């Protein structure tokens, strides 16, 4: 087996994704290339392992060049890491994954450059021993809250606890509506809320152009797509979730709702209900609500919706000078204050 670096996904990349049951939308070219287009100075990187010409493994990453640049295979709460054919014998699969990890670290270069690999729950089961056992990496737990969609939307909704079922009902009775939208005006209104929340936490908001491109994407050969669950009250956008979908997995990647309505109209609960309905309509089996960034109230909110916390790891390879630089730059930290945007005295998840 040999490992090669490419500047674009190979023609048989989708075949590789189809051969790895844990591959999801984050491993698809449409996602990697879209992010690179909307982040100045960022470019996609593809590593592939072939055996006799057959593509057996690969890894996609985003690279920020320069002396203090980064290599991220799964940035900003997404997932990356090795994608390996499930039919490879275990020893060959591990060897292929190790080739990919070594090649990524070799690409890292200078002491002030960082490298991170984030795994989804399925790949955490498969590759955690490889990465956690590698002294070049430090592991940070970023467990994902996953909703079981077996039985359809009504069955998933019945797994909400009593308080959340009541919140959903009260929100809907009070006029809150959740529906899938591709309307540019809806995305702009949501993005304004998103930008306010990002400013509150001291992080950069998603580029509006990226949000539009993801939502406008129509699934191609790789089967990956995105949808926006828009939450309205009396016609006004009061929140929403940006979701990515491939196969049995839908991931609610970025969401925000108006904090002024948090305890009167419960738009966050209604937003998740909208995600559940659309995910089930698409035939998905799981809805991944993501990690909680160390925010206890957010973790409890997701548990109250019936979510199970599945282990995930974010593996960082960086020197001591790089760690100091990352702290200065504010990269990779938990949300400030340990609370959600709309948490406050007397609030509840």
Describe the structure.
This protein folds into two domains: 2-136, Aminopeptidase (3-Layer(aba) Sandwich); 145-309, Aminopeptidase, CATH 3.40.630. It is 36% helix and 26% strand. It has eleven helices and 15 strands. Strands 1, 2, 3, 4, 5, 6, 7 and 15 form an eight-stranded mixed beta sheet that branches. Strands 9-10-11-12-13-8-14 form a seven-stranded mixed beta sheet, with helices on both faces. Strand 2 (43-51) and strand 3 (54-64) form a beta hairpin. Helix 2 (29-38) packs antiparallel against helix 8 and helix 6 crosses helix 9 (267-281). It starts with a strand and ends in a 20-residue tail after the last helix. The relative contact order is 0.15.
Question: Helix and strand layout, with pairings?
Answer:
Elements: E1 2-6, H1 13-18, H2 29-38, E2 43-51, E3 54-64, E4 70-73, E5 83-84, H3 90-108, E6 114-118, H4 121-132, E7 138-141, E8 144-148, H5 153-158, H6 162-173, E9 176-180, H7 184-201, H8 208-216, E10 225-233, E11 236-246, E12 249-257, H9 267-281, E13 286-288, H10 296-304, E14 308-310, E15 313-317, H11 320-329
Parallel strand pairs: 4-6, 12-13
Antiparallel strand pairs: 1-2, 2-3, 3-4, 3-5, 6-15, 7-15, 8-13, 8-14, 9-10, 10-11, 11-12
Helix pairs in contact: 2-8, 6-9
């Amino acid at each position: 087996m040999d490992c090669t670096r490419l500047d674009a996904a190979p023609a048989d990349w989708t075949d590789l994704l189809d051969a790895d049951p844990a591959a999801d939308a984050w491993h698809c070219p449409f996602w990697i290339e879209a992010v690179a287009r909307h982040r100045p100075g960022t470019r996609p990187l593809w590593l592939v392992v072939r055996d006799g010409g057959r593509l057996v493994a690969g890894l996609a990453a985003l690279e920020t060049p320069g002396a203090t640049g980064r290599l991220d295979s799964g940035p900003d709460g997404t997932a990356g890491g090795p994608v390996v054919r499930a039919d490879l014998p275990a020893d060959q699969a591990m060897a292929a994954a190790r080739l990919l990890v070594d090649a990524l670290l070799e690409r890292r270069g200078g002491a002030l450059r960082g490298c991170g690999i984030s795994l989804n729950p399925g790949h955490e089961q498969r590759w955690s021993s490889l990465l956690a056992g590698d002294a070049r990496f430090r592991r940070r737990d970023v467990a994902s809250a996953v909703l079981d969609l077996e039985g359809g939307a009504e069955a998933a909704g019945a797994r909400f606890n009593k308080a959340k079922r009541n919140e959903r009902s009260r929100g809907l009775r009070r006029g809150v509506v959740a529906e899938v939208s591709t309307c540019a005006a809806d995305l702009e209104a949501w993005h304004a809320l998103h930008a306010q929340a990002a400013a509150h936490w001291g992080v950069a908001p998603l580029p509006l152009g990226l949000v539009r491109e993801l939502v406008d994407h129509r699934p191609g050969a790789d089967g990956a797509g995105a949808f926006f669950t828009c939450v309205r009250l009396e016609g006004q956008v009061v929140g929403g979730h940006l979701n990515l979908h491939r196969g049995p997995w839908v991931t609610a990647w970025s969401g925000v709702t108006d904090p002024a309505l948090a305890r009167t109209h419960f738009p966050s609960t209604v937003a998740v209900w909208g995600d559940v309905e659309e995910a089930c309509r698409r035939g998905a089996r799981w809805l991944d609500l993501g990690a909680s960034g160390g925010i206890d109230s957010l973790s409890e909110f997701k548990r109250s919706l019936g979510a199970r916390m599945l282990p995930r790891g974010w593996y960082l390879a960086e020197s001591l000078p790089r760690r100091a630089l990352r702290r200065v730059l504010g990269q990779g930290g938990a949300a400030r204050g340990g609370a959600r945007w709309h948490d406050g005295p007397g609030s509840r998840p």
